[in-house]
Amino acid sequence: MARVIAICNQKGGVGKTTTAVNLGGYLACAGKKTLIVDFDPQANASSALGQDPLRVEASVYHGILGVDHPDNVVRPSTLANLHIVPSAPHLAGAMIELVDLPEREYFLRKFINQLRHRYEYILIDLPPSLSLLTVNGLAASDEVIIPVQAEYYSLEGLGQLLETVNLLKKNLSHELKVNGALLTMFDKREHLSREVAKELRTNFPHPVFETEIPRSVALAEAPSFSKPIMLYRPDSAGAAAYERLAKEII
Ligand code: ATP
Ligand code: MG
After folding, report:
1. How far is the CA of 22 from the centre of ligand 1 (A)?
2. Using CA atoms, how far apart are residues 123 and 34, in angstroms rounded to an integer?
3. Which pTM does this prediction carry?
4. From start to end of 78-214, where are the E strands?
5. Residue 241 · residue 214 · CB < 8 Å
6. Ordered strands of the 3-7 beta sheet
7. Which atom of ligand 1 is nearest to 217's Cα?
């Protein structure tokens, strides 16, 4: 049975998708059957893994609405043990359709439950909001990873995110563990980066991963080649960091 892990932060551009794609990639490289579920209408994880969001016929949207069987929605990637459920822009509209339906928080969970026996890890890449999409993502998960960019405003908003997680935990019939905060785009030469790291490690009420993801040009470039980092620049510092993170998770 898969460990289902949401990658979540309502703040935009903090490294959620980069983490989903490259952590997923290294879990797969470690021999773990891994599925990435792209649950963001921006569909960045899908394109980073070679899926064209404007052309996918069966996306996560069709999966959660039951229009398509899960088997038709899962796609292979360039890595042997890594599969992807792609997203598409019309996922944004799905929320308007779902909002009046009963059990609207559990659509993604019901979809993922049909797949979880086939994988060891399922990572859900979430959009930058605390919307019904995000609530669906958290309600489908056992654990949540919160990427935190090493910059001044990053710590603001974490309280609101943890409140949402706590509220959900109270209403869920299963555990939702804050697996940890993950420092991203870290530059140890910058005073500010070190200060944010110190502040997070001192005050965050849940674990903080030992691995810090450095700012790395290779990580930013890899998606434009539709490749996870281990197929683009396996020798880069960013690659080494995500490999260490995968070991920490396992
Ligand atoms: P959104 O909230 O829009 O979904 P996100 O949280 O998923 O964003 P990413 O898309 O992963 O964030 O990253 C934002 C930008 O920063 C991207 O251009 C990405 O390539 C770049 N980036 C992410 N992590 C790193 C890193 N460690 N070093 C350098 N660039 C990075
Ligand atoms: Mg993203």
Report:
1. 12
2. 8
3. 0.97
4. 82-85, 121-125, 143-149, 177-184
5. yes
6. 75-76, 82-85, 34-38, 121-125, 3-7, 143-149, 177-184
7. 29
CB under 8 Å to 137, separation ≥6 — which residues? 6, 8, 39, 108, 124, 126
- CB-ligand 1 contact for 66 (6 Å cutoff): no
Please give the chain's pLDDT, 250 residues, in tens. 999 999 999 999 999 999 999 999 999 999 999 999 999 999 999 999 999 988 888 999 999 998 899 999 999 999 999 999 999 998 988 878 888 888 899 999 999 999 999 999 999 999 999 999 999 999 999 999 999 998 888 888 899 999 999 988 888 777 899 999 999 999 999 999 999 999 999 999 999 999 999 999 999 999 999 999 999 999 999 999 999 999 999 9
> Pocket of ligand 1, candidates 7, 10, 18, 209: which has the most ligand atoms within 8 Å of its Cβ, to mutate?
18
Residue 85 CB neighbour total at 10 angstroms: 30
